[in-house]
Amino acid sequence: MPKRKLDPLPSAAFQILLSLVDEDLHGYAIMRQVEEQTGGQTRLGPGTLYGSIQSLLEENLVEEIDLREDAKLGHERRRYYRLTSAGRKLARSEALRLAGLLRVARAKKILRGDYV
Amino acid sequence: MSEKIYAALLQIYPARFRDAYGDDALQLFRDRSRHEQGLVARLRLWLDLLGDLVVSAPLEYRRAQPAFIGSTAGSAGAPNFLVLETDPPRLGAQFCAGLLSLAAFIAILVAIGNGWNYRFQSAWFAHLPPRDNARFLQPKAALLPASFAFAQAPVSQPQPRDATNAIVDAFKTHDIVMFGEWHANKQEYEWLCNLVSAPEFDDRVDDIVVEFGNSLYQKSVDRYIAGEDVPIEQVRKAWRNVIGAVGPPSPVYEQFYKAVRDANMKRRGKHQLRILLGDPYGDWEKIKDAEDLGPYLTHRDEWYAQVVKDEVLAKHRRALLIMGSGHFIRRNGPGLVEHTIRAAGANPYLVVFGTNAVGGFDDLDKRFDAWPAPVIVSLAGNWVGELPAMPVINGGITPATPLKLADAADALFYAGPRDSLTELRMPRSELDGTAYGNELNRRLMIFPGHAINFLYDQTEVPQFARPQPRPQSGLQPNQQSGPAARPAMPPPPKSMNDPLPPRPPSQ
Q1: Residue contact A50–B24, C-beta within 8 A
Q2: What is the CATH class of A11-107?
């Protein structure tokens, strides 16, 4: 299988890595977490979500841990995913890269207001 | 319906993606559908899904190119197949292939849409009986090469078969046979009791999944069915405390459990049957109001399907599924149970209960008179399949609808002429002034919120009574007299949208 290009890291994959920083989540919970952390701007569809998860699994950036129920969502068993140390490292380096870009943007004074 | 549409759209993704994530994608769709109610939210959901499809499907096809894993060292004298790393196909080639696939897909859909009366004319299938030919016309037909020619199939005569032999044969080609029952019917359950006593059935089938058994009592039922000494008062809770039916259960259900137990006891040392309880695990001893009951009522089909997935499919067992025919019949596609187990890899065969009523209550079809009973008849390519499903399935107590029997199920179970069929009721002596009768009254006050008379002097009555005239307009329900007068249903409990509570330990 051709290697999935995760360099640069696609936005969806980065969002998924961020969503898994605090806890293990299943697909729907990841989607909701991404929606929340982007202020409702990004709702990952099933194709994008699971396509990205597959890429992250192939690169050992996340791992599938088990099948279990989510008490809040009923008795369907769901696949849970966990961030690996490599995934955490990549998320951190991507965040630093974006922070660097943000510093440049600030220096160029293209941002309105000071909340960013 | 929405889920079926999305399931169909998932077919656009490569098989590899569907195999790996198809169920998860459907589950995510269900979760979103459950939480995003209302027109605007639904519209947004579909826009998200379609946008996602357009973006992600081509990426998955690009990824799904065959894996090239490098060559293995050849050994002397042995063929050495070099496996080369290669570039994925050009975008132009993918675009052309996509267009051609789409055109072929649409052509096949159109052909199938026109073609319940058509049959593939192919030497490959010529040896198969009509029932099996019909199977190939179902969704899998879209996967067959488009070069097969279609031709108008002659409408054949139905072939009623001994019901037990037909079920045993169905298990030769299907691991799951679904039986859509008519509740409380004596003749149907006499046959079911005979079926579970048939050695050919017992040798082949592992489980019987029933609607009329509360999952809370699986442990007791397992012991009872295995022939252990279990107090009948404990086992009875399984069918007397069903969530999905508030009134007294018909004696046919207790008879059925006993028949399975007896069959197992006669076959000690041989393959044993298990009854799996498919009703949600609500505990009536803890249900105090409609809000406590709500989540169980809403998730009955989901829970039933989950039991099949966990206890049958995951363990690669064969099962007869029994549930009210309303849960199983296909209306514009499979119902929730069938859809769920198909998504989990099952290929079920669906048989539904029916009679000779083909129109209004008095419209009985004489062609059934020549049939013995009980029989099962395949519905593909004959006049039975062309009948409207509703009067046949419900004895003509409601008007006919456009749904045809052949679209609603694979086969019909016929237990005899409509007016020969009877319902068994629990004797008055077990209910009048007894603790169980009082408990049923309490349950009725919880749901539907008013008393219903369940005390009858006759324990066997016609299964399908002539429908009562509709109440005259202008009268309030409490102004009417006679059996049609019933208080209005209360509003549904708010908890109906809540998920099922955690499952307690089995009793």
Answers
A1: yes
A2: mainly alpha
